[in-house]
Design a protein that fits this description.
alpha/beta, 7-stranded mixed sheet
Length: about 350
C-alpha cells in the first residue's frame, strides 16, 4: 500500500524555453503541476545544476550550420533550430540535473521511493544498454528547471549522504558524462590522462574520477585557475598559455579526455603515445577541428565519442558519493527565477566547478 503522499499545488513555477534564441526565450512562469503516469514518479526539485547542453540547446548550437564555439554563439544566438537528434521539442522545460524528493508515485512505481531524496539519471537508454539510443532529461522531454518534474521510476536513485542539495545537483550530468568517458576509454591505474579545460564542470569531474581510478592526471587551465584545479587532485597542472607540446614531451600520454575541441584538437593527437585514446563528449571551443589522418593511423590511435552512458556508470557514481570518495565543487547557487543571470555567469567562465539553480520551496 502506498504511503501518504504530500498535498501538491495545482500549479508550479517553471522556466519554459519558448524556442531557440537568447535569454529572452527563458520564461519564468506558472504552469500546471504534472502528474506521474504508469511507471513514473513525481519529484519535487530541490536543486538543478547548469550545464553547457542547457545553453547549447537553447541557442540551437547543435544545428549543423553552427561551427563556432559555445560562448561565441551564445552571445549572438541566431535562433537556428536543431537538437541532439533533430528538432528540439520547444516549448521545453530544460534542466538536465535533478536533485529532489519523490512526492507522488504512478502506478507500478516502487513504494520505497516515496519521500526519498534522489538523483535522476538524465541519460536514459530507451532500448536498453545493448542499443545506443538515448532519451535525455531536459533535452528530449521536460526537465528540472521547475518546482516539480515527472521521470521514469527506473531512472531514480536514492542517495544517502551528508551532501547539500546543491552539491548533489551538480553531480548527474557532469560526473555522469565524465565517468562515462573514463569507462568507455577503460582508464586505469597505469594510465596518464590529460584533461584540457579542467576548471569546467565535466573536466573537473574527470580529474577527480580519474584520480579515483588511480590514473596520473595532467590538467590544463587558465593561469588564474591553476591553484583551484590543483586542489581537485591533479598530479600536474599546466597553464593554457604554456607550450603544451614541449611541456608534455617527456610524458607518456595514454588518454586525452577533451570537451574543449576547436583548434587544439590536432595537438592532442600529436602528444598521445602510439595506441593512445582520445575521448570527447563536447566541443566548447568549436565542433569543426583540424585532423591529420596520418597522426590517427600511423600511431594506431583510437578516437572515442561518448554520449550514451553504459549500465555501470551511474550506480558507480552513487556508490562513490555514499562511500565519501568524491565531492564536487559548487561555484555559485542562484534562485531559479534568476536563470538568465546564472547562465551569463556560466558563459563568463570565471568560475571553477558547477553553478546550481534552486526553485522556490
Amino acid at each position: 500500500m502506498h504511503r501518504p503522499e504530500l498535498s501538491l499545488p495545482a500549479t508550479m513555477k517553471a522556466v519554459v524555453t519558448t524556442g531557440p534564441g537568447g535569454f529572452d526565450r527563458l520564461s519564468y512562469t506558472d504552469i500546471a503541476t504534472p502528474d506521474p503516469g504508469p511507471g513514473d514518479v513525481l519529484i519535487r526539485v530541490r536543486a538543478a545544476g547548469l550545464n553547457n547542453t542547457d545553453i547549447n540547446t537553447r541557442i540551437g548550437w547543435y544545428a549543423p550550420a553552427i561551427t563556432g564555439g559555445t560562448q561565441a554563439v551564445a552571445t549572438d544566438a541566431s535562433g537556428e533550430p536543431g537538437g541532439w537528434s533533430g528538432a528540439t521539442p520547444f516549448p521545453l522545460i530544460q534542466g538536465v540535473d535533478c536533485c529532489g524528493e519523490v512526492v507522488k508515485l504512478g502506478s507500478g512505481a516502487d513504494d520505497a521511493l516515496l519521500s526519498r531524496r534522489v538523483l535522476v539519471r538524465p541519460c536514459m537508454r530507451v532500448r536498453g544498454f545493448d542499443h545506443p539510443d538515448t532519451r535525455w532529461l531536459g533535452v528530449d522531454f521536460n526537465g528540472a528547471f521547475a518546482q516539480y518534474v515527472v521521470v521514469p521510476a527506473s531512472e531514480v536513485f536514492p542517495v544517502t549522504c551528508d551532501w547539500s542539495d546543491a552539491e548533489l545537483a551538480s553531480l548527474p550530468c557532469a560526473y555522469g558524462t565524465a565517468e562515462a568517458m573514463l569507462h568507455r576509454a577503460n582508464v586505469g591505474r597505469h594510465d596518464c590522462v590529460v584533461v584540457p579545460g579542467a576548471s569546467g564542470g565535466v573536466a573537473s569531474a574527470v580529474v577527480r574520477l580519474a584520480r579515483r581510478r588511480g590514473a596520473r592526471v595532467i590538467a590544463l587551465t587558465s593561469p588564474s585557475k591553476q591553484a583551484a584545479v590543483a586542489a581537485l587532485g591533479a598530479d600536474r597542472v599546466l597553464a593554457s598559455t604554456d607550450d603544451i607540446a614541449q611541456a608534455l614531451a617527456d610524458e607518456t600520454v595514454d588518454v586525452v579526455i577533451d570537451n574543449v575541441g576547436g583548434a587544439a584538437f590536432a595537438l592532442w593527437l600529436k602528444v598521445l603515445r602510439r595506441g593512445g585514446r582520445y575521448v570527447t563528449s563536447g566541443a566548447i571551443a568549436g565542433p569543426t577541428v583540424p585532423l591529420d589522418l596520418r597522426d590517427l593511423y600511423l600511431k594506431d590511435l583510437t578516437l572515442i565519442g561518448s554520449t550514451a552512458w553504459d549500465a555501470p556508470v551511474f550506480p558507480s557514481l552513487i556508490a562513490a558519493v555514499e562511500a565519501g570518495e568524491i565531492r564536487p565543487v559548487v561555484a555559485a547557487v542562484f534562485p531559479l527565477k534568476e536563470i538568465a543571470t546564472a547562465q551569463a555567469a556560466f558563459l563568463d567562465k570565471r568560475h571553477v566547478g558547477k553553478i546550481v539553480l534552486t526553485p522556490p520551496a
